């Protein structure tokens, strides 16, 4: 995967526990283009890679902007960026990838929870530039915890943005049911933030009979939900199976108690892994034969049913053999 070396042109604190990084090419050349909803891999340290959404206008090519929330249970990524990476430092990143793209729609509803505002900011910039209809609703614990408030207030699309603070008065509280009920059925919904926030949006939309193909989401960091508590991707009764590497025909055995990605790495077949929960998409691998046992929080039901890709960091196999496009 393509990697770039960039310079931290600016670093600043934008809200409680949120640092913003502006990244530029070391020679001040144009950076690879990106689309709304894209993210980059940030190589924080050897073997430590984290994904952060790009939140600046996708029409820009002179910089990438990311917002990083310091995770109170950090595993080294956000803490290192907050404490160790400074202005003018050089860091390695991956070229932009987009697993959360905008669909063509007459109207879009952007629903952000906390740091989940970052990809939706990028979407708002694109939709405004394209002259498309949209509304942005930004939910946060308080004004002090809401990043990019000044930027949103100064944006030419500020009239489309609405803030909802947990400690605010009842008149500004986020009322999702009413919002969905009042939205035209051709609207596409995009939501990003904590797992509980996303689950609430997805389940409420389902209760109102919304087409799942019109509800798009992207999780941030570790996930806690009814299906995945963020701590264990193995399950009682897991069975061993084999994977075959299509390019060489090599067969690698995957024991019942280890992830596919670990089994591959033990045999010198290394794939990018970051979240290890099927959230970030770093490890997505094409499946040529066999039936995956999907345990991710990334793919839609339709994508899972296709059985042509899976997340080897957490997913397994229902068949005795999976043939991987490696």
Structure commentary:
There is one protein chain. A hairpin with a 2-residue loop joins strand 3 and strand 4. The chain is built from seven helices and 18 strands. It is α/β, with parallel strands linked by helices and 326 residues long. The chain has three domains: 3-94, Elongation Factor Tu (Ef-tu), domain 3; 107-219, Rossmann fold (3-Layer(aba) Sandwich); 241-324, Beta-grasp domain (Ubiquitin-like (UB roll)), CATH 3.10.20. The longest helix has 14 residues, at 117-130. Residues 222-233 have low confidence and may be disordered. Strands 4-3-6-1-2-5 form a six-stranded antiparallel β-sheet, with helices on one face. The chain has a five-stranded parallel β-sheet with strand order 9-8-7-10-11, sandwiched between helices. InterPro entries: 2Fe-2S_ferredoxin-like_sf, 2Fe-2S_ferredoxin-type, 2Fe2S_fd_BS, Beta-grasp_dom_sf, DmmA-like_N, FAD-bd_FR_type, FNR_nucleotide-bd, MRET. Residues 241-326 form the 2Fe-2S ferredoxin-type domain. This is PDR/VanB family oxidoreductase. Residues 1-103 form the FAD-binding FR-type domain. Keywords: 2Fe-2S, Flavoprotein, FMN, Iron, Iron-sulfur, Metal-binding, Oxidoreductase.
